[in-house]
Amino acid sequence: MWDGKSGCLNVSVAENRAVTDLVLSKLLALDGATPFTEDSIYYQDTRGMEGCRKAVARHLTKLAGTEKEVDHEKVIISAGCNAVLETLFSIICDPGDVVMVPSPYYATFKFDLGCRSGVLVSECSGIPKGDGGSPSDYYPTPEYLESTYQRILSSAGRPPKALLFTNPHNPVGIIYPPHVVAAMMDWSDSKGMHVVSDEIYGGSIFSPSSPPHVSLLAVSESKHGRVRDNHHVVYAMSKDFAASGLRVGAGVVGGGEVMEGARKVNDMCQVSSHTQLLVEGMLGDEGWVEGFRREQGRRVGVRYERVKEALGKGGVKWVEAQAGMFVWVDCRGLLREGETEEGLNERMVEHGVMMTPGGSMGMEGEGWFRCVFTAVDDEGFEVLIKRLERLGELRGEPEKGGNPLDGLIEFPARMRIKVVGPNDDGFVEDIKRAVGGVVDVEADKVGRRDKGKWTSVSFDIEVESEEVRKRIYEAIDKDERVKFKL
Question: Which UniProt keywords apply (predicted)?
């Protein structure tokens, strides 16, 4: 959606394009130097190649903060974090079983668990506890979990099978303190449930003042002397190493029947030998990994500070992030009277920024959005900053003669102009004539959408200059029936 000039910036996908050069150069170097032996072209252990599992285990040991090294015999390598999740939950759950997830949460959990395994996700309501502006507002408590547990037990007639959470948190970008992780673990253990911690952002801590990430593995080991069989962690190369296209996920799976099941089910979503060798080489170069993490944290941290400054200029609030690659933006003040989050989202897209609406991530209350500020390259990021600085212009009722894209477009540009007015054929034809009097309008590039007493007329047109754009809006403004335009 980003064309370098007038397109909308898609900052809804959690990818890190701020470190592309670092990752690509390393992979290119490894690809030419990685030994590809005869054994590599044949079937491998369905859990993953031993060398890759050992490299992942060593890396996770450093991230997790465990005293004991993560056992590579409990590691599975699969085609992405979603494949690990599907494999794990297809083993510990039956179709129709319910998994509890504290909200807000990564929306695709529902698809990952339910598409083929038939597992249901039930969001835990009651978060945030306060206004939502503080990290601690999003900490789950045993009382909060118990309320959801009883609701599921009453409605489903059977208890939930597992608790699934993300730490560091997606979408809020906070890190759960050890006591919060311990409380969730202890509560789940008291119910005989499995606990699954998605730690895909475990190495993406960018703030020097952030607390360290403490894994479920470390919390479980600290209390029980080992990681219990019902405690599981999932990870991937997609976020920490900006390598979502490699499709490499990893799971540290509890022993016994769960691992035996994972060994069999994972056969259907193995990672190629070539890719596993690349991952082994990348993680095995511990000096490079340390340097990469420092530079990644620096680059992401610089972007985060600039995003905060831009939001502040626009009069928009946010929750202080500690990790990840996104910021949880409080856009409640931009909602117009009676406007839905969907309506605000449409206006934000017209403004040139596509974020993830909080409602799609189980957030209670409308007006929260996730902005992935690493989803665009350096050029796109500069445009994002300009648009975030002017986000506050979406506040309140629109004024005639103004437009949120003023000064943000490089011409010539292909533009989509939207005019809202009364649901009347005469109004639509008059607006078409007004715009057509300034620029050429192709009939198949004009759209109309009726909603109750209002209609929206959209034009997909080529605009040569800022002067021409202003003339178009001046022509539209002459019609007193226009409610607003974008």
Answer: Pyridoxal phosphate
In the chain, % of residues over pLDDT 70: 95
**Bond before 211 cis per omega within 30 degrees:** no
Please give the radius of gyration of the chain, using alpha carbons only, rounded to the nearest integer.
25
Cα–Cα distance for residue pair 198/232, rounded to 1 Å = 9
pLDDT score for 486? 64
**Domain boundaries defined on the chain:** 20-289, 401-486
Please provide the average confidence, as pLDDT, over all residues in the chain.
91
Cβ partners under 8 Å of residue 350, min gap 6? 404, 416, 418, 486
Q: What is the spatial distance between Cα 304 and Cα 293, in angstroms, rounded to a whole number?
A: 16
User: Which distant-in-sequence residues (6+ apart) come within 8 Å of 444 by Cβ?
Assistant: none
Count of other CB atoms within 10 angstroms of residue 116: 11
Cα 402 to Cα 113, 178, 345, 431, distances in angstroms: 46, 50, 19, 17
Q: Which CATH architecture has domain 401-486?
A: 2-Layer Sandwich (3.30)
For the whole prediction, is pTM greater than 0.85? no
Model confidence pLDDT, tens digit, residues 439-478:
988 888 898 988 778 888 988 888 888 888 888 988 998 8
Residue 90 near residue 100 (C-beta atoms within 8 A): no
Report the C-alpha gap between 47 and 133 in whole angstroms: 42
Provide the angle, in degrees to the nearest 10, between the axes of the packed helices 273-284 and 286-313.
90
Fold of 20-289: Aspartate Aminotransferase; domain 2 (3.40.640)
Q: Bridge partners of 371?
A: 327
Strands 317-319 and 194-198 come out as: unpaired
User: What single string gives the DSSP state of each residue in 296-347?
Assistant: HHHHHHHHHHHHHHHHHHTT-EEEPP-BSSEEEEE-GGGPPTT--HHHHHHH
Secondary structure in 3-state letters for 342-381: HHHHHHHHHHCEECEEHHHHCCCCCCEEEEECCCCCHHHH
Residue 234 three-state SS:
strand
320 residue type, one letter? E
